[in-house]
Amino acid sequence: FNNGSASIYYEKNNSQNDNLNFNLNKLMDLKKILPENGPPINEVNKYIEKYKNDLIVIKYGGNVLIDRNIFDNFITDLSILNKLGLSVIVVHGGGPRIKRELDKSNIQSKFIRGLRVTDEKIINIVESVLIDFNNDIVSSLDKKNTEAVSIHTKKDNIIEVVPEAKELGFVGLPNKINNDILLNIIQQNKIPIISPLGLDKNNQTHNINGDTAAMAVAKSVKSRRLLLMTNVDGVLNKEKKLIDEISSSEILEMVKDETITEGMIPKISACLDAVNNGVTAAGIINGTKQHSCLWEIFSDKGSGTLIRK
User: Fold this and answer.
1) Torsions phi, psi of 261, nearest 5?
2) Integer distance in angstroms from the first to the last C-alpha of the chain?
3) Alpha-carbon span 305 to 266, nearest angstrom
4) Which of 141, 261, 285, 307 is the most exposed place for a label (fewest CB within 10 A)?
5) pTM
């Protein structure tokens, strides 16, 4: 080599070595953070890049939060997402816990269109249960060295509601979301944990369907993903096989021919509303399966059904 080309060769090789060392260090860091039964590291690396400038809204249903092992698995996944630099917003449910508390007080719930009729006594119990549960999630994340912030009607309320229907009592529909509070928390690399509660113009607390609350938040912040975590694998076809990905029009056909029925319809409605109003895609996944959240976000095959516009 002459002096000039030797210098270029040396710099190029040094640059390649630096990149190689950086990538090896990054892979080693990922190995420390990721669970052994999680998605492949090379795929995780790819999807970290894909989502690094986006928001992901996750709704974790109350029905899969009763089992403490499943709850702990979810907390682990949330902590991992945060440590990998992803911006996540969580909306939690709490139906079974609410039922348990109402049963203790011998209060029988009446449901209309799948929504609990909520009088003054019931809304006080609902609010108390959901706030306790919210604090449980935040403190559990804290034990994983992951900072989270409680959001509910007693602290940093972000959801303004209008009453859904007179016969339902204190059940609300989100009318406005305060994005500023959410984005400020995310900029501090913390996870907002939102209870499905809101205040009306008179500062009266209302209960909100968890899927509806998550959908409203996802639409408001224009998230890249809305994930509804439940206790089923996703959307199934007539042969009861999981559909990996589906469009809005195909979903509507399945509702029309009654392939999709009952409890799945509100979730489907929330997903369709989201993808038709600024959310890139929505997923329905099984929260009872280990690391289903990580598999959905960080792998090529995903873990449930992805719904696109």
Assistant:
1) -140, 175
2) 58
3) 15
4) 261
5) 0.90
